[in-house]
Amino acid sequence: MAEIAFPYRIDARGRTAETSRTGHIRDLIEILLFTTPGERVMRPTFGANLLASVFAPTGAEEAAATLALIQSALQEHLRDLIEVQEVTVRAEESTLEATVVYAILETGETRADSFRRALP
């Protein structure tokens, strides 16, 4: 079954762009990672606030806390779709990259997807 692609766009046929189930789950992870809690009106706890963590103090404890928050958000909001196995985050120059290794519960398929954003 086809799902609506993220970000929303019109495809070459002039219709809403679609993606596969696997692509949709990847899109959901990306949305969750880069959404700030409180940003969604009807879902005030939705989001991992990843971009804000870049400006937090640095150190081993802060890095561990950030990863725990991300894993917690993924578990809370996507637990019916995925099982998170590993999360890594790194910032280089003006880019933030998060890599999530997860298993899709429907199929058992393990995937590793990376998500990048330019830092503000």
UniProtKB/TrEMBL annotation:
Matches recorded under InterPro entries: IraD/Gp25-like (IPR007048)
Name of the protein in its database record: IraD/Gp25-like domain-containing protein
User: Which parts of the sequence belong to the IraD/Gp25-like domain?
Assistant: 22-107
Entry's SUPFAM superfamilies?
gpW/gp25-like (SSF160719)
Species whose genome carries this gene: Paracoccus chinensis
